Amino acid sequence: MIEIKGLNQYYGESHTLWDLDLDVSEGDCIAVMGRNGVGKTTLVESIMGLLPIKDGSINFQGNNISQSSPESRASIGIGYVPQGRRIFPFLTVEENLKIGLPARKDKSNTIPEFIYELFPVLKDMLERQGGDLSGGQQQQLAIGRALVIDPKLLILDEPTEGIQPNVILEICDIIRKLNTQRDMTVILVEQKLPIAKRIADKFVILDRGANVYSGLMSELDDKLIKKYLTV
């Protein structure tokens, strides 16, 4: 579904991604893992076009999107839930959800009903301002906003960060359901190992901006955890 080859990225003079390769097949649910500062958010922001890439290529469903705008990437079916949620606090829940509608291929101006089935609390709070919601409710809103386009690929950057434990489990189960029941390919950036194992089937480990190991989640052993994931 998405193929990244030789991706290099920089912040100023700092080289943050080094010749990174990544292949994600249709139907995958893959966790991108690694310690702080290894390039995980840089990778997903590059996929979304929020950071122009310096070298390398990004292909989505056989088409080169390396130079495409973030808006055009949404319109071809890539949904994104950024770290920190980034909802619009002074817009209502309904207005936040509707922001994504122009990117839909069918140009529908109606919020898909399945979003309310996944997150009933959003339907109950449509007229509430986003900033009035709890952290967990805001995260549900951020995911719902990404789902408005009914994406083929959903990218989530630390979706359980700062969320109360009961909502974490609910969000994990919803992401899993999107992958298994709606055939949505998922790329998940997640620091917490138990969360990554609960959601993902596969993993990729980044270290110093490079893809150093990838495989099935069942292959993630104590040696790899100690070498690349333990602080």
Q: What structural keywords apply?
A:
33% helix; 9 helices; single chain; Rossmann fold; 231 residues; alpha/beta; 4-stranded antiparallel sheet; globular; 6-stranded mixed sheet
What does this entry show, briefly?
By secondary structure, the chain is α/β, with parallel strands linked by helices. The chain has helices spanning 40-47, 70-75, 93-98, 113-118, 120-124, 135-147, 165-181, 193-199, 222-229, and strands spanning 2-11, 14-24, 29-33, 55-60, 63-64, 78-81, 153-157, 185-189, 202-207, 210-216.
Basic shape: globular
In whole angstroms, the N-to-C terminal distance is: 32 Å
| Main sheet specs | 6 strands, mixed
Order of helices and strands: EEEHEEHEHHHHEHEHEEH
Which structural class matches the secondary elements? alpha/beta
Number of contiguous helices: 9
> What is the name of the CATH class?
Alpha Beta
CATH architecture designation: 3-Layer(aba) Sandwich
Helix % is 25-40%
| CATH superfamily membership | P-loop containing nucleotide triphosphate hydrolases
Q: What is the name of the CATH topology?
A: Rossmann fold
Compute the average pLDDT.
Answer: 93
Number of strands: 10
**Unreliable stretches:** none
Strand content: 25-35%
Number of separate domains: 1
Radius of gyration: 17 Å
What's the arrangement of strands in the largest beta sheet? Answer: 6-7-8-3-9-10
